[in-house]
Amino acid sequence: MANQSTDPKLSEIETVKLRLSELLLGTSLDWSEFRSQTRVICPAAELLKCLKAFKAVGFDQLTDLTAVDLLEYGNVNDRFEVVYCLLNVDSGLRLIAKTYLNEPDLTIPSATSVWFGADWPEREVYDMFGILFAGHPNFKRLLLPDEFQSFPLRKDYPVKGRGERHNFPVITRAES
Amino acid sequence: MATQINKQLGDNIFLTKLDAAASWARANSLWPMPFATACCGIELMSTAASKHDLSRFGSEVMRFSPRQCDLMIVAGRVVMKMLPVLQRIWLQMPEPKWCISMGACACTGGVFDTYAVVQGVDRFMPVDVYVPGCPPRPEQLIRSIIDLQEKIQSGGTINAREFKLRILPEGPARFDEDELVRIRERNGFKLEDQKYDPVH
């Protein structure tokens, strides 16, 4: 293991933290580090402000946007976690931004106004978890059929489904 | 009578029924519709390619228009979104037509026992020959085509009236029992409750 204080990336993340604390005065960001990956947890109410600030400090690419269902996961009290994986293309610096969501209000602002690449990932997250993104330009299911009722990646959804895969007309040989 | 004619004319005349003649022609010129959605499709291509050469059995003319086909080969898993497409292509194929369900996924869903994968295409459309395997080898597919040819020749009729008898769904029941129990328990219904419709 290299000495972490000599790692140039670390000093860079410290400057990013400083700049963010200036940009986001009054917003409590929860920073943590795991195996030299930096994570920050943003409050859901001020998410869009935080994301804009992240872009302003140089994270110009949204590499991935996904969600986690934390139902029955350890001693976590929140239900959903939306994860934004950010990349500064110039410096190679990465940041994982997270926010927590709870039922019944599963609406968060869409990140498409900040990074337009969030278009399809947000639709997929809605498709699989039922999290609503306000302000998305074309908000509908991405992968599953439009008439699908459930959100299959939620932990309380059975892996075999609720009979959706059996809900089709049967064609017999005589009528085809 | 027939022996008298045979004696007089030798091999110049061949007496048969019109049904048998039509079935013989149909069996030896099957035109497959390759509905290849997964790895079974690769084996299907291999079957048609030069090493295994499906054309030896008269069914090499793969057509990508259902209007020109009379054999549907479902090769690979079919998901919820694909099943209406499969059914539509099947309905677009002209009579007489047959269906081969190739591989474990097309027959039963295979290892993909999930919410989105149809657990066997035979639940929703008629299937004549099932090919086991994951994926089946080209020899198995060739065997299934030979079996289908035997089936066509043994019961085929010129106006395809044998199909009119198949008025019942031929696949497994719509719900297997443990699935029904599971759905009812989750919704707070007991198994004795007959009024609840599990579909929707």
Molecular structure report:
The complex is a heterodimer of chains A (176) and B (200). With 176 residues, chain A is α/β, with parallel strands linked by helices. In chain A, 21% of the residues lie in helices and 24% in strands. In chain A, the strands form two sheets. A five-stranded mixed β-sheet of chain A has the order 1-2-5-4-3, covered by helices on one side. In chain A, β6, α3 and β7 form a beta-alpha-beta unit. In chain A, 24% of the residues are buried. Chain B folds into two domains: 154 residues, Rossmann fold, CATH 3.40.50.12280; 27 residues, no CATH class. In chain B, α2 runs antiparallel to α6 and α3 crosses α6. The C terminus of chain B is likely disordered. At the A-B interface, loops of A face α4 and α7 of B.
Summarize the structure.
In chain A, 21% of the residues lie in helices and 24% in strands.
Helical fraction of chain B? 25-40%
Count of DSSP H/I helices of chain B: 7
CATH class group of the largest domain in chain B? Alpha Beta
Report the structural category of chain A.
alpha/beta
- Spell the H/E element sequence of chain B: HHEHEHEHEHH
Please list the strands of the largest sheet of chain A in the order they lie side by side.
1-2-5-4-3
Number of structural domains of chain B: 2
Structural class of chain B: alpha/beta
Q: Fill in the CATH topology of chain A.
A: Beta Polymerase, domain 2
Provide the β-strand percentage band of chain A. 15-25%
- CATH architecture assignment name of the largest domain in chain B: 3-Layer(aba) Sandwich
How big is the Rg of chain A? 20 Å
The average pLDDT of chain B is 84
Helix content of chain A: 10-25%
Which segments of chain A are poorly predicted (pLDDT under 50) over 5 or more consecutive residues? 1-5
* Anisotropy-based shape of chain B: elongated
Our Rg estimate of chain B from Cα atoms comes to 21 Å
Determine the mean pLDDT of chain A. 86
Strand order within the widest beta sheet of chain B: 1-2-3-4
